[in-house]
């Protein structure tokens, strides 16, 4: 009986890992579509993305419907341009926020809104955004990167995970497409499968920081030792321990 129970637990943990992989694969598929829309079929940039204003229109059409869903997965989404795209040092964030719960930066909102850096004193913090993880790693690896969990002091004022993917033209990155997801929203997506695993499990990032946990003693952001029994979630840097 113990062997049967162990087999069922292993299968439950594997199923939870597959649920994590499927969720982030869905996000990455969306980012891939956004890259193609920005670059055009020939990779050189379509007529609708040749100026910042036109780019904003294109990106807004892509992301706003997702942020308007009845129960949106995303709390933020869009495109962040490299200085090479704008032709100067100006920040250009084609980035929209979904409806927000009460927070000290934006209060509460009921509709998607454009992130307005010009009116925010903290925009100076982003002057060197190319050094931040969500930008620098896609730039150096040419691959999609998942940052977090971390507390977003810019918009959501809560624990989030950020997924960013490089948009490249002629071998150079012209920016990143990305999404922000509340950790508490991830919990709603992933907890049912994790609770069905048959034992307490914790979803950790590549640094061992807890993202979602069925162990009430492990809080988001805590460092957890992975050990030999960790199960990797394919296509992500995450493991279930």
Automatic annotation (TrEMBL):
Native species: Leifsonia shinshuensis
Name of this protein: Cache domain-containing protein
Gene3D superfamilies the record matches: PAS domain (3.30.450.20)
Domain of life: Bacteria
Pfam families the record matches: MCP-like_PDC_1 (PF22673)
């Amino acid at each position: 009986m113990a062997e049967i129970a162990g087999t069922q637990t292993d299968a439950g943990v594997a199923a939870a890992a597959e649920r994590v992989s499927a969720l982030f694969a869905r996000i990455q598929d969306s980012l891939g579509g956004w890259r193609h829309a920005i670059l055009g079929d020939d990779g050189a940039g379509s007529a609708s993305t040749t100026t910042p204003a036109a780019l904003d229109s294109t990106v807004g059409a892509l992301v706003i419907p997702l942020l308007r869903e009845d129960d949106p997965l995303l709390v933020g989404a869009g495109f962040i341009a490299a200085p090479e795209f704008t032709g100067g040092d100006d920040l250009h964030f084609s980035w929209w926020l979904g409806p927000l719960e009460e927070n000290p930066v934006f209060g509460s909102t009921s509709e998607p809104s454009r992130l307005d850096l010009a009116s925010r004193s903290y925009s100076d913090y982003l002057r060197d955004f190319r050094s931040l993880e969500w930008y620098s790693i896609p730039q150096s690896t040419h691959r999609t990167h998942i940052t977090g969990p971390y507390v977003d002091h810019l918009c959501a004022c809560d624990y989030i995970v950020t997924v960013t993917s490089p948009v490249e033209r002629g071998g150079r990155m012209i920016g990143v497409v990305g999404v922000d997801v509340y950790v508490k929203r991830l919990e709603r997506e992933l907890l049912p499968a994790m609770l069905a695993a048959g034992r307490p499990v914790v979803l950790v990032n590549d640094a061992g920081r807890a993202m979602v946990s069925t162990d009430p003693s492990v809080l988001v952001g805590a460092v957890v030792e992975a050990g030999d029994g960790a199960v990797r979630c394919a296509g992500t840097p995450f493991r279930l321990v």
